[in-house]
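User: Show me sequence and structure for the first protein, then do the same for the second.

Assistant: Starting with the first protein.
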Amino acid sequence: MAVILRGSQTAAVDLVARWRRRPGRVLFVVIIVAGAAVWLLGFWQYAQHDRIELIDLPVVADRADEACTTMRAAVAVSAAPAGSGVEARVRTVRAQDAAVAVMVARVRELGPEKLADDHPAASWLADWEDLVAVREKYADDLAAGRAVSLQVPVTDGVPITRRMDEVGLLCRVPAQLVTPG
């Protein structure tokens, strides 16, 4: 049985025959295609990975943003008027700390398993608790008439408040929490 080829078909057969005679070309194309496939797979994996520095699990982020909005409103409302006495300032610090504690508790209601699924969530909550502890010491010193100074905790040379603000949430540390009146 004879196969009759037209001009363009003959050219295609000649091209295939030339490629077969030079296996280096075929190997080159296979390597390029395989390399591109590996690169695309790696890029896809990177694009889909959990960014370890961000709270990005929707259930955690939504709860944290909602609790933070409530906390920020409570902190703003409880601010002591300028020139307030020591007792009013101590009450303000403690009321603001209570608002932060409620926020932390609200997020922790998700449970340790859910929080563990979003890497920075636990350390973000611990940072809030550390800030409250420092503020409580400040309030104790203020109430006792001692010299007061609020020193925001630092980790690796960076104030924890910066780390708290950089987890991808709409929740910023209110200025009143780091510069009490």
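Switching to the second protein now.
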Amino acid sequence: MNKFYFILLVLLTASCSGQDFSINDFITQKLESKNKKILIVECYCDNGVTVKKTDDTLITINVKGNLSSLGYHGKQTAPKKIDKETLLFRVVETKDTLTIISKEWTHMHHRYLIKDLNISIPKNMKYEIKKILGVDLEGRKTN
């Protein structure tokens, strides 16, 4: 009987062996402030956001992201890097506000999350961080 359980354990372990991956990548995105008065940052950013005011007129966004798959039971090809479009923030301009929106998402065993976010803004610009809730990341559309 013990042999039966051992063989069953081996078969279950073999059938669950996935091809997990975790890839870290980074990008620097620069935006003209165009005399906007407010920057709104929309992201999950579990590790927080660091905002520094500078004498520069550019907004500089330094993003370190992680694309990963954990516990997927099928075959998959692990990417070599994170796509540039995934790392870049989506930008929305209104009258006096510039909104940058992360492209973080989760889908079952796969996810893209920002691990580190540092932003430099002009010293006269105000900013607001709008946290995306973790439960809202599942199946999130990013375009």
